[in-house]
Amino acid sequence: MSFLCRNAALLLKSSRAAPALLSASRLYSSGGQYEYILVEKRGDKNNVGFIQLNRPKALNALCDGLMKELGQALDAFEADKDVGAVVITGSERAFAAGADIKEMQNRTFQECYGGNFLAHWNRVSTVRKPVIAAVNGFALGGGCELAMMCDIIYAGEKAQFGQPEILLGTIPGAGGTQRLTRAVGKSLAMEMVLTGDRINAQEAKQSAYELTLAEGNRLEKRLFHSTFATDDRKEGMTAFVEKRKANFQDQ
Ligand code: CO8
Q: For this UniProt entry, which residues form the secretion signal (predicted)?
């Protein structure tokens, strides 16, 4: 997964601008199949599966019904041999403001643990075709996690990423602690998860580059230091100084 701060407008273009594609939309949503998402095929060759989260009043909070529909739409695009890639987007105000807090509010431990609550959420990460998140506005909690499950994130100017679960007395549950660490580095990920503070698209992009590189360099340096615990490192350098071929023993 990578953050790209490009103009997401291209991907967010309203379907009003492409009447020819509306028929494709109807194909996918015929019979009122979807209540919480808009689904259509886009692109010159009609080969991009386009899914728009559509619960504007709840800032696209990811209720159970929405996530089930998202899974169905992904299944359909996965099976459609004409579709080469999938785009998931929200609105300018919100990609998704997280799991639906109102739905979760009265859940008990027994229900969550015994019922493997929200286990179906990871469908996005198992799609074999490339999945792109076009993010603007809030991408918080499960919304940020959903974006990070995608292969690429195109982030618009108003995008805000955050894992504010701590402010609700809970923690990320859909890979936030793991994927955020890889996306922006451990330091910023910990800060975000422990404070609930958000970052914008530029900060996400910058951190993705700087921190993962810095961490990689730190790891590399420690591994380099570790070679000084081996006989072969000593032999290799000694052989160089003595102008002979090294006799490595794999030790
Ligand atoms: N769930 C339900 N409803 C929400 C959510 C949400 N996550 N976010 C916003 N809404 C609703 C509000 O309740 C409000 O509805 P109403 O008008 O009926 O009161 C409407 O959307 C608009 O929201 P606000 O009035 O609050 O709008 P603001 O512009 O003032 O604030 C914010 C926008 C900052 C986004 C604010 O709404 C907010 O903080 N939302 C909650 C963000 C949050 O905490 N997200 C994390 C949720 S927990 C989570 O995602 C855990 C995922 C675990 C997945 C596990 C898988 C295995």
A: none
